[in-house]
Amino acid sequence: MLETRNLTKTFRKFIAVDNLNIHVQKGDIYGFLGPNGAGKTTTIGMLSGLIRPTSGTAIVNGLELSDFNNIKKNIGVYPQESNFYPNRSAKNHMLLFGSLKGLNKVQALSESVRLLQLVGLHDSEDVKVGNFSHGMKKRLGIAQALIGNPELLILDEITNGIDPLWAKQVRDLITELNKDGITIIISSHNLFEIQQICNRVGIIHKGQLVAEDDIDLIENNIETESIITVGIHNLSLKMVEWVKQMKYVRKVEQIDGNKLLVYANSRHDIRSDIIHGLVSVGADIFELNEKSRSLEDIFIHLTT
Fold first, then answer.
1. Which of 135, 156, 163, 200 is close enough to 80 for a disulfide, judged by CB 3.0 to 4.6 Å?
2. Which of 303, 272, 304, 292 minimizes the C-alpha distance to 219?
3. In 12-163, which ranges are continuous DSSP H helix?
C-alpha cells in the first residue's frame, strides 16, 4: 500500500527526516509513533504533497511520490493544523472540499450528506464551524479527508487536545473505517491510543526509524529491561549476592525489607532460574512476578 524509500527532508542544516523506510500494508491501522519534534508531521507533509522531499521517495499503490496528482485521488489527509472557516457551515465546508476533489455539485452534496452522517455531524450540518467544539472539528476534518472514498487515510495527531470521551469516539470511528477497508496511518505521541487501535507500529526518533513491527510482536523483538519482584521471608545477604551474579541480571535492589527488584535483559526469561537458585541456598520465596512490558516501556527505551 505505502512504503518510503530513504525519504529525507532537511531544513538548511537541520535533518528533520533521515533516510526513512516505513512499510504500511493494505488493511493496516499503522501507528506512526514518536516524541514531539521526531519528524512525524514533516513525514506526513511529504506523504500528503505539502512538503517536497530533499531526497528519497515514497511509493503509494505503486505510484511514485512525484506522481502526486494521481496519488492524491486515493488518499485522504487530516493535517495536525487543520484550518476551518469559522463563518462557514459544516455542509458548506464539505461542498467546498468536494469541489477541490473534482466532484460536481450533485456528487459533492451526496458525499456531504453521507460523510457528515458517518461522523455524527448530520444534525449540525448547518451550524457555523466557529461554534463547533474541538472534538466536532476533529470529526469534520475526518469527514473532509474521506471525500472521494480514499483507500488510504492519514491522520496527524487526530485526538490531540480533545477530552477522553471525544477521543474514544474518534478511535471508534477509525476502527469502523478500517473495517470498511480503509488503510489508516495515525501519527501520534499518545501511546495508549496507538496500543488501543493499531495493529502495526513504526517508532521514529530524531528523524530516523528506530523500530517497526506488528504491535503484538514488537515487545518480543525489542530488547529492553524486565523488572522481576522476588519476595523472600528469610532474605539474606547471601541470597542477594547470588541473584546479582546471575547471567542477564543488570541490577538488584532490596525494598520493603524482604523483597528484591531484579532488573534483567527482557529477551531472557530467568524466573525459573531465580527460583531454583534461591531455593538451593535456602530461600523461602513467597512472591515472584514480572512487570509486563508495555509499548510505553519500549518507546522510552528507544527514544531516551
1. 156
2. 292
3. 40-47, 68-71, 90-100, 105-118, 134-145
Backbone angles phi, psi at 160, to 5 degrees: -65, 125
Beta 208-214 vs 200-205: how paired, if at all? antiparallel
Q: Which fold has domain 2-220?
A: Rossmann fold (3.40.50)
Alpha helices for 146-190 (secondary structure H): 164-179
Q: Residue 37, Cβ neighbours under 10 Å: how many?
A: 13
Please answer whether residues 138 and 159 qualify as being in contact, where contact means their C-beta atoms are separated by less than 8 angstroms.
yes
Quote helix, strand, coil % in the chain, to nearest 5. 40, 30, 35
Q: How far is CA 250 from the centre of its chain?
A: 30
Q: Beta partners for 251?
A: 263
All structural domains of the chain with their residue ranges: 2-220, 223-303
Cβ-Cβ contacts under 8 Å for 189 (sequence gap 6 or more): 33, 34, 35, 36, 40, 157
pTM: 0.76
How far is Cα 138 from Cα 11, in angstroms, rounded to an integer?
29
pLDDT 10s digits, 97-156: 898 888 899 999 999 999 999 888 999 999 999 999 888 888 899 899 999 889 999 998
SS3 at position 119: coil
**Cα gap 299→293, rounded to integer Å:** 11
Contact in structure between 147 and 116 (CB atoms under 8 Å): no
